[in-house]
Structure formats: C-alpha cells, structure tokens
Q: What sequence folds into this?
C-alpha cells in the first residue's frame, strides 16, 4: 500500500502519454524510499512550490560539476529523499550504447542510487536521478574505473559536448561529428570539470543542417556540417521521383495519401532562396544562392546529395529561454575545413571563451553578451572578419560599422564639400 | 605573480568578503591586474587544498571558503539553519 495519498500526481497518469509518476510508483515497489519522493512531489503540487532546497556543496573531489546537490526542505517528513542528488554522466558520441554497457550503468544505479534516470538531459548527458552524499565517490570510481566513463558538466562549466550520429550512419553528414565531439571533450577537460565561466557554455556538433542535436537553437557554439561546392544531382533519380518510381522523403509520411509527388510544389517552390527551377524535364540549381537548408535533399535523397567540398559552419550564441528570451545562433565562420585535431575550430572557441570570460556578467550567456555589447565588439575581440552571412536581416540594419581610421578624412571631413558633391 | 602569492591574495579577499559564496568573476577582484585563466589556476589549487569549495545550483557555480556559510551538514537538515 502506498505510503502517501497522491491525488494530484494520479492526475498525471491519466493522459495519453507515458507518465513519470507511473515510473516512480513502479520503482517504489523495490525502492521504498521513493514513496517519500512521491509524497514530497505531491506536496509541491499542493503547496505550489518546490520542496527541494536550492543547490548544494556536494560533488566528487576535484570536480566542480557533474553532481547537482538536491536536498529536501522537509527531511523529517520525507527521510527517503533527505538528500537526492543528481549525477550527470558524459554520454557516448551519437548516443551509441551496447546493452552490456547500459546494463552496467543500471546495475550500478540500482545499487547506489534510486534507479531513476532521464535518458537524456537536454545537454545530452545521461542523468541519474537521486542518490545520497556517501555514494558519490563510489559512483565516480565505478564509472571511471569499471566503465571508462566520466561525469558530465554542470554549473558555470563547459557542458558535456554532444553530437549527432554523424557519418557513422547518416549519408547527409558532411563532417565526422563524433570525432569533433570527442576531440572537444578531451581538449576542454579542464573547462568541463572546473568551473570558471560566467555561466554555462555548450558545444554541439551536427553533421548537416538538419541539425539533429538542435545545435543552432541550444548551443553557445554550434558546429554544423556543410559543403562549399554544388549539390550533386542524379538526373535519372530526379526523373524517378517525378514519375513515382521513388518515394519522396524516403517513404516517410506515408501514412496518408498525399497525392502524386509534385516536384515544383514540394521542392522548387519551397526552396527558401528560390534558387531552384524545373522545366518539366530537368532540375537546375543556382548553387551560389543556396543556403544549404537541406529541404530538397531530404525530399529526394537518392537524386540530390551534398557537394564533395565539405566542412563546417561555426555559429555562436544560441540559448533556451531561462533568464532572458531564447536565441538562435549567429554564423561567425561560414566555412571551415574539419581536419586533423580541428585546431581552427579550437582557435575560434578559445577566442570566444577569452572574450566572454573577460566581459561576461555573472549568469550571462555568450549570446546575451553579444546582444549587450554588439556583434562588432565580438568580431574585434576574436579577430573574425565580418562577412555577409553574419547579417541576419536583409541589410536593413547591418551591424558592421566603419572605424574612423577606415574613413578618408575620418569624422572631421568637410561635410559642406561632401554635400556639394552629393546633394540631398 | 607567483601562484603562492596569488593564492594568498585570493584567500585574504575571500575571507574578508561579506558574502559567504561568490562567483568566479568576483574572485578576480583579489588581483584585478591578472586575467581569468591565471586566477583559475590558483582557485583550482585552493579547491584541491580544500581551502575553497564549490557550491552549485546545477546551472550556476559559486565558490566559498570551506566551512563558511552553508555547510553540507546544514544542507542535510541535521543542523538547525
């Protein structure tokens, strides 16, 4: 029999979706302390306030992240969750796991924690929910020594870099997303584990502009695969799509009858830059106008493929809405080759971090710093050249300005003489 | 500046601070002539020596002088707050 009545939580089991309440109730049959979790969360719904204290000192020795202290503010009433810390575990590249590995993680978490997990957190980590302070070093030892796995990032750290599955399975991928993610994770270990940033900093790597890890929306530094040359066109496959021999979108969305595939309506007219045309026989692309949105490639993957001169676009400044509104990332390097140990990418990241560490206010993301000080200041600090891809709107209010030294005569030129030549 | 000298300056600043916990950026006030990378080296060493400690909300990290302000025991509710 349940320790507490939970009428509010029971409501959350009635919808069509899987419920965390059902999961906790099931787990409470083998972990009775989770009855206290249900009791406390129920009380939070009743009181309309959290009964977790804010933050904590706990962690593993030498690490400033990876463990998030959670303490009940009613430990006498709910002793099973008096301390109920979260452990963030660095996920694998592309989220590939063997069942043996997952079995080890879960065996450890059943022994040393609540058995509850969140696979995965929005940063990408495996999130292990609920353990006690005395178990933390033991968990860290088992993860690192028995599973060759590290803790992830939290707090004012570099957060655990994450990536899509990249070239390992996806023919769209223009970069080895997993290799880049691994290199960034290893190179920035100090930044990942020892906090010295104004706030969080996320690096996410997507193999193409489909952006399966939402790098452009969620990461302070997005590395997104792209290509420089022309989309490769297989004319016979284009014809096969048009006459229905090949299914558009690789047969996805096939649950309804959408009618015959219409290349003009479904591809050409949906091109965001209008750089495509179809004359009834041949599909042509004005590649210099293409923004690499991936729509045409997604729709006709057998007929269209990314070019062969591949690399990455670097973007900066995205964030989800917490302190201020959400932001999408801005292009800062339109194209960079991804070779060797990705030194060119690291050089840009290092400059961004230096500028942000110097000028960022406490709890200010780098995107907000760019918003406060201006793109121009960021470009000056990092030495990145301004390029048209950085301009968000159609040049109505470009933020690339002239320095006085760049203008003949500076700011003191003779305006009367100028107006004589250029009358209003 | 020698790292030992910097560590000493940071501890003097931290112990004088009226706030029990402070952001990393604020620690820079102990040696404003130095950059954050140098400060970080000294702060990391002080954490290793257990003179400073981390406090984290999960989204933000702060530093504190070990034993000053909230303690692990108090957070667990075993001490009166």
A:
């Amino acid at each position: 029999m349940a320790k507490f009545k939970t009428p509010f939580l029971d409501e959350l089991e009635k919808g069509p979706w899987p419920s965390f309440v059902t999961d906790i109730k099931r787990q409470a049959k083998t972990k009775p302390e989770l009855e206290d979790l249900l009791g406390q969360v129920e009380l939070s719904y009743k009181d309309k306030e959290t009964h977790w204290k804010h933050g904590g000192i706990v962690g593993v020795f030498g690490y400033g992240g990876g463990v998030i202290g959670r303490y009940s503010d009613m430990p006498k009433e709910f002793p099973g969750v008096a301390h109920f810390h979260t452990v963030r575990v660095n996920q694998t590249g592309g989220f590939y796991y063997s069942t043996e590995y997952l079995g080890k993680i879960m065996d450890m978490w059943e022994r040393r924690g609540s058995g509850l997990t969140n696979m995965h957190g929005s940063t990408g980590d495996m999130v292990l929910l609920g353990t006690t302070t005395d178990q933390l070093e033991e968990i860290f030892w088992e993860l690192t020594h028995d599973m060759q796995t590290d803790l992830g990032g939290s707090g004012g750290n570099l957060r655990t870099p994450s990536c899509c599955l990249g070239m390992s399975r996806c023919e769209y991928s223009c970069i080895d997303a997993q290799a880049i993610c691994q290199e960034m994770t290893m190179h920035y270990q100090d930044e990942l584990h020892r906090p010295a940033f104004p706030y969080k900093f996320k690096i996410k790597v997507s193999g193409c502009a489909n952006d399966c890890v939402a790098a452009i929306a969620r990461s302070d530094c997005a590395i997104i695969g792209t290509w420089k040359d022309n989309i490769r066109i297989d004319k016979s496959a284009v014809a096969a799509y048009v006459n229905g021999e090949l299914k558009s979108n690789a047969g996805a969305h096939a649950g309804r009858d959408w009618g015959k595939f219409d290349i003009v309506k479904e591809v050409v007219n949906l091109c965001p830059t209008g750089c495509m045309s179809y004359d009834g026989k041949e599909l042509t692309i004005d590649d210099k106008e293409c923004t690499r949105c991936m729509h045409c490639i997604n729709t006709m993957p057998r007929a269209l493929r990314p070019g062969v001169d591949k690399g990455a676009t670097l973007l900066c400044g995205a964030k989800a809405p917490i302190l201020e509104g959400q932001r999408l990332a801005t292009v800062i390097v339109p194209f960079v080759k991804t070779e060797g140990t990705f030194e060119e990418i690291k050089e840009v990241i290092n400059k961004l971090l230096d500028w942000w560490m110097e000028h960022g206010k406490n709890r200010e993301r780098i995107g907000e710093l760019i918003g406060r000080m201006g793109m121009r200041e960021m470009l000056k600090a990092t030495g990145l050249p301004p390029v048209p891809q950085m301009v968000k709107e159609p040049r109505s209010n470009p933020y690339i300005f002239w320095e006085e030294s760049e203008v003949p005569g500076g700011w003191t030129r003779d305006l009367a003489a100028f107006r004589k030549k250029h009358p209003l | 500046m020698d790292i030992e000298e910097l560590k000493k300056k940071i501890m003097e600043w931290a112990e004088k601070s009226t706030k029990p916990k402070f952001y990393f950026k604020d620690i820079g006030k102990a040696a404003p002539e130095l950059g954050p990378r140098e400060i970080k080296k000294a702060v990391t060493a002080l954490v290793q020596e257990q003179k400073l400690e981390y406090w984290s909300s999960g989204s933000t990290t702060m530093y504190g002088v070990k034993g000053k302000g909230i303690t692990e025991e108090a957070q667990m509710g075993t001490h009166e707050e």
About this structure: The two ends of chain B are 40 Å apart (CA to CA). The mean pLDDT of chain B is 89. Strands of chain B lie at 21-22, 52-56, 61-65. Residues 3-16 of chain B form the longest helix (14 residues).
